[in-house]
Amino acid sequence: MRLYFANHRAVWRVGDVAGIDRSLLAGALERYRLPVGTPVLLDEAMRPVEPVSSWFRSLALARRDAKSMRAYAYTVLMLLGFLLARGVDLRSATEMDILQFRQWRRADAEDTVGGTTWDRDAAAIVSLYKHLVRVGYVRASPWRSSQGESLGSGFSTDVRVRHLELEQYLFFRDVGFGGLTPASELDETFGGWRPHRNRAAVELALLTGMRAQEWSTLLLPELGLMAGHRPQTADVDLAACAKQKRPRSVYVPVGAMELLDPYLMIERPEIVAKAQRTLRRRHQDLFVVQRLEADDTKVRGVLEGRTVTRSIKDLAPDLRRITVLETGGGLEPLALFIGQGGKMLTASGWDRVRWGAWDRLKAWSADQNAPQVPCRCWVYHDLRHTFALRLLIFLTREALGDAERQQLPMSTLLDHMTRNPLLVVQRRLGHVLPSTTYRYIRYLKDPMREVDDAFREWTVADGASYVTIARHLLNLEENAHAAPR
Prior knowledge:
Number of strands: 9
Shape: globular
Number of domains: 3
Number of helices: 20
Low-confidence stretches: none
Oligomer: single chain
GO molecular function, one term: DNA binding
Strand order of the largest sheet: 7-6-5-8-9
Protein name: Site-specific integrase
Distance between the termini: 73 Å
Organism: Streptomyces cupreus
Keywords: DNA integration, DNA recombination, DNA-binding, Membrane, Transmembrane, Transmembrane helix
InterPro entries: CB, DNA_brk_join_enz, Integrase-like_cat_sf, Integrase_catalytic, Integrase_recombinase_N, Integrase_SAM-like_N
Structural class: alpha+beta
Largest sheet: 5 strands, mixed
Helix content: 40-55%
């Protein structure tokens, strides 16, 4: 069995090379269209393996994102291989077969997995068997209902919240990404690429709390950055690029918009100019927008040989990467952050930028102006955690100050609903459950800093350290002066 994933543009390119008439190819794609990223499991004769391929299609039509479908597909492929080795299939598998697959994944496989990864695998298996029951392929799931229809690890994950202090963030942004020295001077040895773009990206991530997939896939019209215009602030409606495609609105403040100016005026025009030859060569593979409509919230252009109109907020990340505007004088990528060839940077591309910044931070960490650097490399999601914590601290202080000024014995229900800091942060971050936001409460104060403060006097009392006290108690100081035997 071999696993494939639907890719319209790959079919379009192959058809172009094979000389297939574009109108015929466009009609075939329209008639047999599968959502992008839909898994397809084929046997040795290149026929779909059922009922698994039908389940994949149901996931796609239920608007599961391509990343989740890919993970589910590989899990089920492993399950099928495991069952085949035992001489059973999905219909004849028993509870013991499924539980032994869990044991194999977690303890016996060449590359074992932890509880979090297994919980994702379990979700895939549960979803598959629910589909098999629904279509009548099996009467019931193999495992007993007393297990609550869950094969999960049984352990709840506690997300570690890593956040940055101000001096750490400035070191992170200006030295790591911006190519400056810790003394805020120009580093003549800096050999990085596009520092204005990279500084603007991390500032946007910090001041909006957006996830990496959200801020890295933004388009110019979403921030009002068309025809040389740059508003003071912006409100972005997220949909297709948000986690699990849950819509929410994000406010982009003045600071984030202002730091875009050097990139938009200096670096981006140079990138676009150099990319024109590449973009023209790839013209047939792009979504070429002819005009913006509905106050720049919709785009109309040619995609895979068809003229279509699409809402910008509903454009999937893979489509955003190939969206360009025909200006008459050239092709303008609509992606905000672009790299060589005018293409939107991928997640791996931004990771390369991050690791380059991390190497610079470590190289400068011994400088007297450098703050403490953590042992593990920062990730972009740490900026989201920093946004959440700073906002939560500010709103909590504001709420306490209002209550004190009004001399309220207790908050009214309306105050709680409209001004509760946790509810505000939950809405800003797009968390579905309040419990996800509650995890930030324990990080309102840095626990490790409290430990340092609590024991600082012990370590400096009478100039004695723990090592000095231990040596004294064990009479090591006297023994050190004794003659060796």
